[in-house]
Design brief:
Order of helices and strands: HHHHHEEEHEHEEEEHHEEEEEHEEEE
Number of domains: 2
Bound molecules: fe (ii) ion
Number of helices: 10
CATH topology of the largest domain: Double-stranded beta-helix
Shape: globular
Oligomer: single chain
Structural class: alpha+beta
Radius of gyration: 21 Å
Largest sheet: 9 strands, mixed
Strand content: 15-25%
CATH superfamily of the largest domain: Clavaminate synthase-like
Helix content: 10-25%
């Protein structure tokens, strides 16, 4: 189904069409959009998505060899058409009573990610104790998720976000506001909420942020956190994965830690992050002190970091080896959790201490997400820094 047809379906659809006006943004804004029309050419020519993208690679892996987009879609849809939602087996959770709420905290992984069950983000956060509890849980677990929040309008999402930080622009701070014609997400404007980024994907526009990254680290002051709402989920696939940046730092060899501890690296945005044709970049410490927990994270994401700062004058071959050793820390199963989306699921993560990636495995199914960024209310904490103390210093650590 085409992006331009999203709205017809949503208009007839049940839950959120009554509270969220999806009609205008997708329908009227993409139909004549040059980028959309260019992407659509491939679909009109019955060419599958490129194998060089995860969405294309997984689609080809799922189906017998064919170069027909229509055949590929049909094969995958036949595989997925009878899926139903069910729950099997035990789910481990911690019961917590707080402010009259009986919460169930479901860990997604030993070190990161918790789903908070038993809460209504519209009415239960009036109690400041509940907000304080969620904030502490977020700092500890770095990713917190919620189910069954599809009654939240876009305005309600903004209200929710403000309880934790200042709502940033689509890519965080205001120093650099991307206006790239090469990013399909930026072509959709949300009336009244310009800070919201809408991320659609369907059979014509395969679209997923596949690749480990923290949001907008090419900004001098990258956003503290991000909030993602799922409005429409594929029947299978499209999870968001998160990776623990404390563990990534801990997992480096002592030799590498000593070499890189006080280095800085250059983070460069992609063509989709350009503003007025200019590609953004920023220089940040490789080891970053989390400004609220005091712990050290590895603040290098291969999606945006290609080299160390020129001032260090590190030989090319050594740079390659060091970056490779860091790359090997990304996405290790021991450091990683997956959040499976349902319509109305929300995830809020700490960009200072986890990487994330969309699992680009769900084409040709539809997926519709909405994102807000949040900035630290404490402005002096927004610029990444490294300040080792006696507990975090590499000089005092052992392998
Ligand atoms: Fe992202």
């Amino acid at each position: 189904m085409a992006v331009s047809q999203f709205n017809d379906q949503l208009g007839q659809d049940s839950n959120f069409a009554t509270t969220i006006d999806m009609k205008s943004p997708l329908e009227s804004q993409l139909t004549d959009n040059p980028l959309y029309l260019k992407i659509k050419e491939r679909s009109d020519a019955d060419k599958p998505p490129s194998r060089s993208s995860p969405l294309g690679a997984v689609a080809h892996a799922r189906a017998p060899a064919t170069e027909s987009r229509a055949e590929l879609m049909q094969y995958i849809r036949d595989q997925d058409k009878d899926l139903e939602v069910g729950y099997f087996g035990a789910i481990r959770y911690k019961p917590v009573s707080l402010g009259g709420l009986d919460l169930k905290l479901e860990p997604l992984h030993p070190s990161i990610g918790t789903i908070v069950h038993g809460i209504d983000l519209n009415k239960d956060l009036e109690n400041p104790k509940v907000v304080d509890f969620l904030r502490a849980l977020w700092l500890e677990r770095r990713v917190i998720g919620f189910r069954n929040q599809d009654h939240l309008t876009r305005d309600d999402m903004v209200k929710f976000a403000k309880r934790f930080g200042e709502v940033g622009e689509q890519f965080g701070e205001r120093e650099h506001r991307p206006n790239s014609p090469h990013d399909i997400n930026q072509q959709i404007k949300v009336p009244g909420i310009p800070n919201m980024l809408v991320l659609p994907s369907d059979e014509i526009v395969p679209n997923a942020a596949s690749g480990w990254h923290c949001d907008a680290t090419w900004q001098p002051k990258p956003p503290m956190g991000s909030i993602l709402m799922c409005r429409e989920a594929p029947p299978i696939g499209g999870d968001t994965c998160f990776c623990d940046c404390y563990a990534m730092w801990e997992g480096l060899s002592l030799e590498v830690k000593k070499r890189v501890e006080f280095l800085r690296a250059v983070h460069v945005g992609s063509v989709g992050h350009q503003m007025d044709g200019k590609t953004p970049s920023a220089v940040h410490p490789v080891a970053r002190t989390h400004p609220e927990t005091g712990r050290t994270t590895l603040y290098v994401q291969q999606g945006f970091v290609k080299k160390f700062a020129d001032e260090h004058d590190i030989p090319t071959e050594e740079q390659r080896k060091l970056l490779h050793s860091m790359k090997m820390q990304e996405g290790r199963p021991e450091y990683t959790c997956r959040f499976q989306w349902e319509p109305g699921s929300i995830a809020m993560w700490d960009n200072r201490a986890v990487l994330h990636t969309a699992s680009g495995d769900f084409w040709p199914h539809r997926r519709l997400m909405e994102r807000l960024t949040i900035l630290d209310y404490e402005r002096e904490r927004r610029v990444p820094y490294y300040a080792p103390n006696q507990h975090s210093s590499v000089a005092n650590s052992q392998n």
